[in-house]
Write a structure and sequence with these properties.
The structure holds two protein chains of two kinds. Chain A has six helices and two strands; from the N terminus they run ααααββαα. By secondary structure, chain A is mainly alpha-helical. In chain A, a hairpin with a 3-residue loop joins strand 1 and strand 2. Classes of the chains: A mainly alpha, B mainly beta.
């Protein structure tokens, strides 16, 4: 199977490619930690707390990376369009909703960026707002993962050609023995 | 201020009233609150409360040091603003409310420090373990109700305890051993002749 160099590799400078892969890695890590932290029993309070703080810290990193990438794309004159634009929207909205969810939580646990820097909460605890924000944050996070997966499949498909094209190439390379 | 107090009386039926004797008062959640806080790494704290409690306060005006207080809080009602945390708190690692449904404080002496500050000497029982505990009471506000001929007094009561003294030793890293109590109550006394 021949993999063609993608637009991504042909045109993007190394710094933007690196930021892209860092974003992908942090989104996957943050999503995975979200599943674990909610499944950890409450009696493991310290572990649960640390996982929540790590999840929130990763979310803030994802938002910062998305903003940086948008700034670089804007400077290069190639702001994202179509599904890539929606990816950027979710890369910003999901962490923002996560931050607001944490701020609205009645339990009033602060957001400690990697346990070092306290990020101020700009809204007060509010049970009704928390109940409204939390599912939206969760569903949009699932949407982000789904859209990212679709983005990856589509890019991979472009790089390697469509399934039909691959089959045609394969048939050319290995013609059938039958007449 | 007296008018304001009278208005409060009219619109909020939250004042403790005389029970059977002149200076014996029933206390419950209608007349105040019992809250507590714990620290986490010294970085932030959590609030909890007992939404259900009841008790009696016997005020001896001639001998205040002989005043008595006996309050029972329903351990099955202890709550923090996080459902999982509430479940944890009521569970065997903390209040063990299934086996010890009552948290009780009995104060058998009250010492006046000055006109507005008092020390309540007594014992606190949690999980069946009883320990001495001194509480600090402060008279925050006092007013007269000329309509009912009563005096209204708002008190805040604070105290500190070590949860490990009562067998609550779980999560020592995450939850401080020191617990601060914050109690607010309002009592109504028949006005004294002047």
């Amino acid at each position: 199977m021949t993999v063609r160099p993608s637009w991504f590799r042909r045109r993007l400078p190394r710094i933007r490619r690196n930021l892209h892969w860092w974003t992908a890695a942090l989104v996957l890590l943050g999503f995975t930690i979200a599943w674990i932290m909610t499944a950890v029993p409450v009696r493991e309070l310290l572990l649960k707390f640390l996982l929540f703080q790590l999840h929130k810290s990763l979310g803030l990193c994802v938002a910062a990376l998305a903003l940086t990438r948008l700034a670089l794309a804007w400077r290069a004159g190639d702001l994202p369009r179509g599904s890539r634009a929606w990816l950027y929207v979710l890369l910003l909205v999901v962490p923002a909703l996560g931050y607001l969810t944490a701020a609205a939580a009645p339990i009033e646990v602060p957001t400690l960026f990697f346990l070092v820097l306290r990020i101020p909460h700009i809204i007060a605890p509010d049970q009704a707002l928390f109940d409204a924000l939390r599912p939206v944050h969760e569903y949009l996070a699932i949407g982000l993962i789904a859209l990212a997966a679709w983005h990856a499949v589509r890019v991979r498909s472009r790089a390697t050609g469509s399934p039909a094209l691959r089959m045609a190439r394969s048939a050319d390379a290995h013609p059938s023995a039958e007449p | 201020m007296k008018i304001l107090s009278a208005m409060i009386l009219c619109v909020t039926p939250i004042l403790a009233g005389p029970a059977h004797a002149a200076d014996l008062f029933n206390l419950d959640q209608r007349y105040g609150s019992i809250g507590f806080t714990v620290e986490h790494f010294g970085a932030f704290h959590s609030l909890g409360n007992f939404p259900r409690f009841m008790g009696k306060l016997l005020i001896d005006r001639l001998h205040p040091e002989q005043s008595k207080i006996d309050v029972e809080a329903d351990a099955t009602s202890v709550t923090v603003p996080w459902p999982d945390g509430t479940e944890l708190l009521r569970g065997p690692d903390f209040f063990d409310a299934t086996h010890h449904a009552v948290v009780r404080y009995v104060g058998d002496a009250i010492k006046a420090i000055d006109a507005t500050h008092y020390k309540i000497l007594g014992r606190l029982e949690i999980r069946g373990i009883s320990r001495p505990l001194t509480l600090d009471a402060t008279l925050q506000h006092e007013s007269d109700d000329p309509v009912k001929g009563t005096e209204i007094a708002d008190f805040t009561v604070t105290g500190n305890l070590s949860r490990s003294d009562f067998g609550m030793t779980a999560d020592p890293v995450m939850i401080s051993d020191q617990v601060k109590l914050m109690i607010a109550t309002r009592i109504e006394l028949p006005a004294q002749p002047r």
